[in-house]
Amino acid sequence: MSNNAETKKVKEPLIRIAARDPLPFWKSWGIRIIAFLLAFVVYVLVVYAFTELTPVETFKYIFKGAFGTTPKRLFGEITLWKTIRDIMLLFGVALALTPAFKMRYWNIGGEGQILIGGLMSIIIMRCVSPYIQDPWLIVVMAVCSALAGAIWSAIPGIFKATHNTNETLFTLMMNYIAIQLVAFINIVWEKKKGSGTLGMINADTQQGWLPQEFMSKIVGDDGYAFIVLFVVLIAVFMFFYMKRSKHGYEISVVGDSHNTARYAGISVKQVIIRTAAISGAICGFIGFLIVSGSSHTVSVDTANSRGFTAIIVAWLGKLNVFYMLLVSAMLVILNNGASELASKAGLNISLSDVLTGVVLFFILASELFVNYKLIFRHSKREEA
Amino acid sequence: MFDFFSSVFTTHFVRAAVIKGIPLLYGATGEIITEKSGHLNLGIPGIMYMGAIGGLLGAYLYEKCGGMALLTGGNFVVPVAMVLAILGCILFSLFGGLIYSVLTITFRANQNVTGLALTTFGMGLANFLGGSVSKLTVAKVSIALTYTGKAFKLNIPFLSDKLGVFGEIFFSYGLMTYLAIAIALIAAYILKRTRVGLSLRAVGENPAAADAAGINVTKYKYTAILIGSVIAGMGGLAYVMEYIGGVWQNSVLGDTGWLAIALVIFVLWKPANAILGSLLFGALCVLFNYVNVGPAMQEIIKMLPYVVTVVILVISSLRKKRENQPPQALGLPYFREDR
Prior knowledge:
The structure holds two protein chains of two kinds.
Chain A: H1 2-9, E1 15-19, H2 25-51, H3 55-67, H4 78-102, H5 110-128, H6 134-163, H7 167-188, H8 216-219, H9 225-244, H10 246-256, H11 258-263, H12 268-295, H13 306-316, H14 321-344, H15 351-371, E2 372-376
Antiparallel strand pairs in A: 1-2
Helix pairs in contact in A: 2-15, 3-4, 3-14, 4-9, 4-10, 4-12, 4-13, 4-14, 5-6, 5-7, 5-12, 5-13, 6-7, 6-12, 9-10, 9-12, 10-12, 13-14, 14-15
Chain B: H1 2-8, H2 11-36, H3 44-63, H4 67-72, H5 78-106, H6 111-136, H7 146-153, H8 157-162, H9 164-171, H10 175-193, H11 195-205, H12 207-212, H13 217-243, H14 256-266, H15 271-286, H16 294-319
């Protein structure tokens, strides 16, 4: 009896959190949209605090920063195309991470895998271009970049598969090894002594450059049609690879439970290494796209934190191809827009990172309300 | 060969290694305490940035924005400047830690994603405030705090100059250096020898078992993450004050934060080892200034800390010694209802 009395004295917490069944589509997205709107209220307030721009002006500058000034010539606009390029590249890296994350393998080495791919492209552009001419040179570059990325990613993968080495920490370290390798090459092959940069490779012959004239009738001279095309192809491939192929099925089983996979006769080791390699290969290919389709050089900033941002994209996009495209677009538009805001107000351009961070925190927090229900003390509905 | 050693291992080199290594020691100690609670905080680089800018702003308010006239009658008083800097640092890094812990513990957000978002945010916040401060404050100047920078470099007067090489190697540093070593030793003691430490390790190894044993898992996690964040933030402060000398530059910390995370692995989650480990990492970071290999090879030398870390990570997973493994529940969320 005394036991009973004691248990009664224990105070019931004000709020309990319990898992809930998946919400209907409109409800879960309603929650996320509310979170996004709340984030935007904070966003506008922060902007107002620092720049005294009204919300309407804020939107105007974000629009201008992301889409450019002359909406009538929409497809000839440089700003717009840079935004589209950034969206597609970020989306591409997120696609690359998808199979690894589905397997619950934290590949946070996208940054390094992109850089190694880009570096490989540059090496081939520089060293092989006298011997092979353009269409084939580009093919060789693409294949070798993907291979380099695959190898860079397979190294942690192999150790994860055979010795259960922590892949989060391993892939993280591989990023910085790649960054230093790129810095090394930048000095070995520097264009002007002491500059520490490569400059554009093959600027005169344009060998190994993805031709910018491609579809220029439609997209204008500054378009990045090839980048868009290739990333869309990757997206289609990834959609079917994950949903319809045997590999995709194996990946999701291994992700759920190694033991189940083993009982089902799946070689867990093989799946881990293969998936890590595929993830790295696509990252390497994105590196090739950046180098060949846009920058024509490689530096430590080539990946531009896309390897890290893509992790956020993949997670918030729930590894769903369409959602990930949406999240990439949101992040890039916010980022480019906020850069315009900051420069307009004469403030440091990193304002965009602060604002992006605010939005991300709100969306991350909102997942609680999607996945769990809060039960208040004395709540009548709790028996449901 | 002897020439090589005598030209590299000078007292100057050792001092440079220590000053470069101390921020890593703070970062690593903070991250170890955090990881012992089962949370892999990849926001540490961002938190170190926040600590750095917070400390600089605290001192900036004192040195440039009239704080001197207000508090100490127009004279520069060393302890006041240092206390304000440390307070600013604690405030900012606590804010960073609070964002991370609320999101990952209470809101159950993914640790890696939250951490990376926090790093973006923290770096951005520091660069934004540091770069815009001349626009935003009444002082209209950028952050270049000569007095406070010097204050943080003040060393022990007698010991540092009367004891020759010995004094130069051991006693020629500012307050933050000795504080870092003290914090690391205290952390090592608490983790290994006290009940609180045992409970914290239990939370990181197996939160369900800890919960069943009556340990308040949530409380331990919050405390560990917040304390860890503040310690890591102090690393940012030590870097900008002792190493840079009180001046803000864009992205001033470079990859210090990631090196600190590497150091955690390198010392196998033991704060006492981190003291020597940070010295080694500091030495590897400054080595390129002392060996004559040309600028290209310098970049390869800068790669060494990461390569060494990978090697240690692989070796420790090969040997499978249980005390050398990461906390078992590292990076995994814990919800009581999930069982």
